[in-house]
Amino acid sequence: MRLVLLGAPGSGKGTQAARLREHLQVPHISTGDLLRAAVKAGTPLGLQAKAVMEAGGLVSDEIVLGMLEERLTAGDTGNGFILDGYPRNLAQANALDALLKKLHQPMDIAIQLDVDTELLISRLAGRAQVEGRADDSPEAVRNRLKVYNEATAPVVDYYRNAGRLACLNGVGAMDEVFQRILEALAPTPEVG
Ligand code: AP5
């Protein structure tokens, strides 16, 4: 199973990807996690990405695509993968399709988790208190939501128009949301 998880910051992509990884036994590939690891390790790429991430902006398409290609060719994606945090704009969506075509690994489905803005802000404020992630400050969250609405929301339409989207309610207990995803992945999913 090769799937893409879409949704605004705080919609639960990382939370659900961790459950799906256990369920499907395929790697969870999060471009946010890959970038945070590069920042932590102080690599040249991480140094370039750090300020942009802390401000809630998007790291350059070129950097992220290079990183993703390296990860997708690491040799453990034969049975599929869960992609979380990519694509984030139409250029990335096109680049992903081209990359997966080159790798002969076409994507099965994109799942969007839909959560209203007020709840997103409240979830991220809660996480800020617990984890202190640099981009969970109120200013960075505002910017991340703006970037999502301007750059990433069109990606949802891109997959909808291609008949590859399942749009799900991301509100409710984590287990409930997980069940909705499993239903969407069932052999005859309702897509669109
Ligand atoms: P990234 O790490 O992808 O962050 P994000 O998209 O903003 O997503 P979050 O991790 O904040 O939220 P999530 O949807 O995963 O929700 P989560 O499960 O964590 O990206 C970070 C940055 O890296 C970007 O801003 C950008 O700078 C850069 N970047 C990454 N990819 C890029 C790309 N492709 N191109 C360019 N730049 C890129 O949940 C959030 C909180 O809510 C948690 O506390 C969780 O416990 C809670 N929660 C989750 N589900 C529920 C539920 N059902 N009920 C109650 N609480 C819940």
UniProtKB/TrEMBL annotation:
Its EC number is 2.7.4.3. It is found in: Cytoplasm. Pathway: Purine metabolism; AMP biosynthesis via salvage pathway; AMP from ADP: step 1/1. Residues 30-59 are annotated as: NMP. It comes from the Bacteria. GO terms for biological process: AMP salvage. AMP binds at residues 31, 36, 57-59, 85-88, 92, 133, 144. Its main location: cytoplasm. One of its GO terms (cellular component) is cytoplasm. The keyword Oxidoreductase does not apply. GO terms for molecular function: AMP kinase activity; ATP binding. Keywords: ATP-binding, Cytoplasm, Kinase, Nucleotide biosynthesis, Nucleotide-binding, Transferase. Consists of three domains, a large central CORE domain and two small peripheral domains, NMPbind and LID, which undergo movements during catalysis. The LID domain closes over the site of phosphoryl transfer upon ATP binding. Assembling and dissambling the active center during each catalytic cycle provides an effective means to prevent ATP hydrolysis. Catalyzes the reversible transfer of the terminal phosphate group between ATP and AMP. Plays an important role in cellular energy homeostasis and in adenine nucleotide metabolism. Monomer. NCBIfam families: PRK00279.1-3, PRK14527.1, PRK14528.1, PRK14531.1, PRK14532.1. Belongs to the adenylate kinase family. This is Adenylate kinase. It comes from Arenimonas malthae CC-JY-1.
